[in-house]
Structures are given as structure tokens and as C-alpha cells.
């Protein structure tokens, strides 16, 4: 069983990427670990664990969709599409870039000036941060653009399981 494709083909994204004078790439941090499942469905994803062979077994319920399962790619990428749709009226340019220039959890985009690209970085980061999707591992052909991303980000711990 396959999930529907909701993102553009990688070849189309790469061809668009090559047209810009200044480019940026980034990755959504832990994107596939952030697709939470409902409390009732957590009962179907239990983990038995004991730190030492002689310890009693502890039972945990996984609170996220298991990576590698069929729906995880669709769920994660569809979240980006939903964010793009939600920001279409407030920021049509950033919305279109989110919708068209992501391949899985990687963004490949750019602009014709450093200032334009910098503003784009900030706007896309803000839209994704509204859903707690943080952008990391920024790369660019401009050292000036990389300087804007060197600030220290506060990281919140992500919990993968609840103890039963």
C-alpha cells in the first residue's frame, strides 16, 4: 500500500534551484519524529524494555508514528503542504516556496539577491516554527546568508514514548 505523492518531483525542484543567483538549503529537524498519534492508537505501538536482563519489564506506548511505516512520509510532507496553504494569504511567496521547493524534509531554494534570500529564510523559518518544525543544517553559496543562521536555537526535548 502506497501513500499519495504530495510534493513535486526532485528533478523539478533541482531545476528550479539552479536558476537562483543565491541559494539556500536546509533540513527540518527531526521531521519524521514529530508526527504524533492519538492516545487510543498508542495502545497498538507498545514497547517492552528493561535496562538490565534481571530487571522487571517496563511497558511504554510509542507516541509518534513509527519511522519506516507507509504513512509517515505522507503525513510529514502533508504537514508542510498544510502550512503552505495556511500561509497562502499572509505570505504567498513563502507559501509557494514551501509547497514547491521541499523534497521530503529538505528545502532547496533561493533568490536573486542576498537580502531577498535572507528575508525568505526568516519568513519560511517563521511559518514552519509556528508548527514547531525547526530548520537546521543551513547551507548556502553566500557566507553572508550563513551568518544569519548561526545564532543559537533553543531546543525543546521531543518525547517518543509515554510510560504505561
TrEMBL record:
Domain of life: Eukaryota
InterPro entries in the record: DNA/RNA_pol_sf
A Gene Ontology biological process term: DNA biosynthetic process
Name by which UniProt lists this protein: Reverse transcriptase domain-containing protein
Species of origin: Acyrthosiphon pisum (Pea aphid)
